[in-house]
Write a structure and sequence with these properties.
Jelly Rolls
């Protein structure tokens, strides 16, 4: 009887172990199935992305093969150089000799012209006329003679305030003043440099007094 009981217990244990093993195997199979479904979904997504990229690539190839019109032709180096030269505007002039101001607001005609690209500067009047609308850098320098001060300002013909900048050169020997401005000018707008504040002031000439500017 004891032998039979032992055999029954062994058989029951084997059955329970087999059932547990079957449950574990079923769980593993279900997990693998879930992973397979997820991988198939990801593969399909990558296929759609690859197809989209291939369509874009084909469109680019088609555009490259299409004949270009005359307006799409590349610009040659010579054409680029000509276009750049045509767009340049710059001037630089200096005062040939010392000038004594007998009145206030007297224009200064810088009469020695070194550069006048675009022909915007007039050495007879000292006026720069902007050939076209744009942003310009302008500069005027002044140096006083010994014992005399001088004051100059840069003014524009329109757009208040008319004074762009001003500078003062003191009474000490070779005192210098510098007026620098960045300003937007309209086409055909005038800019000039003039003396202001006091009469009988003296502006040193030569290389010390100059008026210059360029299109930025």
């Amino acid at each position: 009887m004891k032998v039979v009981s032992v055999l029954l217990l062994c058989a029951l244990g084997s059955y329970v172990a087999a059932e547990d093993s079957n449950v574990d195997l079923a769980n593993r199979l279900q997990a693998l199935e879930n992973e397979r479904v997820q991988l198939e979904a990801e593969i399909q997504l990558y296929r759609e992305k690859a197809k989209h990229l291939l369509d874009i690539f084909r469109d680019v190839l088609h555009e490259d093969e299409a004949p270009s019109s005359s307006s799409d032709q590349p610009i040659t180096k010579r054409q680029l150089a000509c276009n750049t030269a045509a767009s340049q505007i710059a001037f630089h002039a200096r005062l040939a000799s010392q000038k004594v101001f007998s009145s206030i607001n007297e224009d200064i005609a810088y009469d020695v012209v070194h550069t006048n690209i675009g022909n915007g500067y007039n050495s007879s009047t000292g006026i720069f006329t902007a050939p076209r609308q744009g942003n310009y850098q302008l500069m005027a320098s002044a140096m006083s003679t010994d014992g005399n001060s001088t004051d100059i300002e840069m003014v524009r013909s329109s757009h208040y305030p008319f004074t762009i900048c001003n500078t003062h050169a003191g009474t000490s020997h070779s005192s210098m003043g510098l007026c620098v401005a960045f300003v937007t000018l309209e086409e055909n707008e005038n800019v000039r440099v003039r003396h202001y504040l006091h009469t009988n002031q003296t502006l040193a000439g030569g290389k010390y007094a100059s008026f210059s500017g360029h299109l930025i």
